[in-house]
Amino acid sequence: MKQNIYDNPIFHQSYINLREKGKGLNDVLEIPAFRSLLPDLHDKKVLDLGCGFGESCKWYVVNGAKCVVGVDISDKMITKAKQEFSDNRIEYVNQSIEDIELKPNNFDLVLSSLAFHYVVNFAKLVKRIYACVRPGGTLIFSQEHPVATAKKVSDGWVKDQNGKKVHWILDDYADEGIREQRWFIDGVIKYHRTLSTIMNTLIQTGFQIESVLEPTATVESEEKNESLKEERRRPPFLIVKAQKP
Amino acid sequence: MKQNIYDNPIFHQSYINLREKGKGLNDVLEIPAFRSLLPDLHDKKVLDLGCGFGESCKWYVVNGAKCVVGVDISDKMITKAKQEFSDNRIEYVNQSIEDIELKPNNFDLVLSSLAFHYVVNFAKLVKRIYACVRPGGTLIFSQEHPVATAKKVSDGWVKDQNGKKVHWILDDYADEGIREQRWFIDGVIKYHRTLSTIMNTLIQTGFQIESVLEPTATVESEEKNESLKEERRRPPFLIVKAQKP
To answer: Do the record's keywords include Transferase (chains A, B) (predicted)?
Structure first.
């Protein structure tokens, strides 16, 4: 059974609150950087792995995509997507991204935002993605950065008595595998993989690396929200763009 | 004036002591990983940037390279190289790797071990390397890992009262530039660049990334020397292999 925290009622509501307020790091760091890597979407067939409540699927068709298949394991998320971001060019599929059957050489673009750190078998997923992208097509994905997932018992920042962040804790980096964290609820399972594993898995599968991002906020965002400067101190996200030759 | 710490008498002697005892992390982590990426050296024209005292240049010709040009800014290092690792297939050049004139499309292999973090202008260096590698040729380089160079005032490990390592300190990651450290002597200048800058500079210059390593010691080395296990806790080195198409 694949993990499905997004259907946990407490997690689900907390996550929706975070995203609807536009306060998550997704909104100010990850989404702008991710979208900066997108090619012209016009006439593209897009697969969105871990589409959540479908906000990005809608954005892709509004910005020119011919069609989008959005896949998510969470029934609650897919239900919300169908209610709020439906479109006749979007098909929402309630399935694990690790299990869904995909037609070979079918998509121009495979996109995945902050889902791959939930996947047990990264090599298998990358192989299946490679098979379903057409030659010349592109994979763009973001995930939590390996320096953010590394530590087994995650403490994150060392803070002083006043709650000020002193530095980020890095540990257990080379020991890949399960990381259990608290994020709204206890027992959220993520998988830590090193940067070299991520890169070499893509390359050995046949992808060519086109870009690697470790996004920081824009100066404007930092001016509006001082605390975003803290995100420069360690990279929270890794975003990779790769092409199937 | 390029930094030339390896000609500082105290630094030079301390470094030689470390390397001659085979006790540096170079010997147990970096060199085995670096050499694992080498193609068949037979008949290859090799450029070794930051060759130090020439041990690797000698190793490359002994293992089949047709000829090696070894470049190092340190006069003391080049003198030692000529004394101890001379060979009629090796030419040692006492010059900065940032300044040396290089013939276009001339080398099959450009190798550089733990020198690039001393270079001010990485993009310029990569462009010059790209020009001097023949099409189909390869660049392999190692450097200190970005998580090791990141913090401006480098504390390295947090240690407890007994000197036991508690965790690695990560900070200042996105703020690239000069890092002044103590390594045998005060005032050793290194340059911190993020992983994404390193990757994107290579890709935008035209290189295709072939492999990325964050080496750990072998199980045998770790059994001989328990303290090597600590190196798994954060990656000390980054090694990249890239091809000019």
So the answer is: yes
Q: How far apart are CA B218 and CA B223, in angstroms?
A: 9
CB-CB contact of A32 with A56 (8 Å): no
- pLDDT tens, A127-153? 999 999 999 999 999 999 999 999 998
Contact yes or no for B234 and A171 at CB 8 A? yes
- Return d(Cα A187, Cα A194) in angstroms, integer: 22
- CB within 8 Å of B207: residues ≥ 6 apart: B126, B130, B139, B242, B243, B244
Alpha carbon B89 to its chain centroid, in Å, reads 22
Helix axes A195-205, A122-132, angle to 10 degrees: 40
Cα A10–chain centre separation? 21
**Contact present, B47 and B102 (Cβ < 8 Å):** yes
Enumerate the residues of chain A whose CB falls inside 8 A of the CB of residue B172: 232-233
**HSE-up (13 A, CA, CB side) for residue B239:** 20
Residues of A in contact with B148 (CB under 8 A): none
Q: In what order do the strands lie in the sheet with B157-159?
A: A157-159, A165-170, B165-170, B157-159
DSSP structure class, residue B207: P
* pLDDT, greater one: A47 or B227: A47
Q: Which ipTM value was assigned to this complex?
A: 0.93
Identity of the residue in A168, A200, A212 whose CB atom sits nearest the CB atom of B170: A168
Q: What are the structural domains of chain B?
A: 5-146+207-243 (3.40.50.150)
CA B107 and chain centroid, separation: 18
Cα–chain center distance at A19: 14
Per-residue pLDDT reduced to its tens digit, A15-68: 777 777 666 778 889 999 999 999 999 999 999 999 999 999 999 999 999 999
Chain segment B63-107, per-residue pLDDT in tens: 999 999 999 999 999 999 999 999 999 999 999 999 999 999 999
**Strand B237-243, strand B208-213: pairing:** antiparallel
